[in-house]
Design brief:
Helices cover 32% and strands 27% of the residues. By secondary structure, the protein is of the alpha/beta class. A hairpin with a 2-residue loop joins strand 11 and strand 12. 36% of the residues are buried. It binds adenosine-5'-triphosphate. The site of adenosine-5'-triphosphate has 13 residues, from strand 2 and helix 1. Keywords: Antibiotic resistance, ATP-binding, Nucleotide-binding, Transport.
Length: 312
Amino acid sequence: MGEAPVVEVEDLGMRYGRGQNAVTAVDHLSLTVAKATVTAVLGPNGAGKTTTIETCEGYRRAQQGLVSVLGLDPIADRHRLAPRVGVMLQEGGAWSGIRPLEMLRHLAELHKDPLDVGMLVERLGLGQSARTTYRRLSGGERQRLGLAMSIIGRPELVFLDEPTAGLDPQARHATWELVEDLRRDGVTVVLTTHHMDEAERLADQVYVVDRGRVIASGTPKELTARGAENTLRFRGPSGLDVRSLHAALPEGCKVSEAAPGNYLIEGKVDPQLLATVTAWCAANGVLPDGLSVERHTLEDVFLELTGRELRT
Ligand SMILES: Nc1ncnc2c1ncn2[C@@H]1O[C@H](COP(=O)(O)OP(=O)(O)OP(=O)(O)O)[C@@H](O)[C@H]1O
């Protein structure tokens, strides 16, 4: 038997409003989070990620199903959970007149063994804004402060709602590194994101959510290994005879001219297939330009499962 899950959501159902105007935000959603792992809840806007995570944080009561956090009930056991769980909300969480440095020092005093305030300020690039009042901080600065506030007390478990939304690349990377350090220190992290690269980079386990339901789950590797294996692309003159190319390839490969002069081959892309394609090109006097074998991404997985782009 492995260790008990840190977070367990079973058959969660959540609706907003009543009667005809009711909106189903979360629909029979189940997920399990193991200790000292990073779990990403990945999905487009409105998929139900925030509602799910807010239920785990004890801000909303589960209308259907069960939610357990560190073996406790997020609402009934709120006071026992508070010192053990860090929460980064999508919006704010600090008073408008307070400065980041004051806020962090204040929180540090409330904890027995806080992280070093200076280290957090430095790592999250908050040095410049450490003495600016909260109301004057940029969205990205507020977000980085929110992250610092959620982890300063060395929680066992952290919930991060869209931790890198709107951050510049440098701040995104600083956030990712911090999350990786948390995992290394044995902290369990649950985050929501609509960036598949973030889920691919950080998560041990990904739950792909759409319209309130989990439509796929697994490690990033497992998820991207399913369905169409790989894609081979090349550019050439437009109007090549794709039927002739298709006939040269093993059964099960799809060939298309995705845009004029842009050719796409989907299927089991192996060295043999690559050799067949280049031989066909040679026989037809075509010099393939920009020939590339592309890995299946979580973005492709989402597209295949829903017929829609992830970033909506
Ligand atoms: N307070 C509310 N009242 C009514 N409907 C709501 C409320 N909060 C969320 N919803 C609806 O519930 C659904 C799920 O929203 P939720 O915020 O959980 O999704 P999300 O995946 O977190 O999206 P985002 O990435 O935009 O935050 C959406 O259709 C949303 O419009």
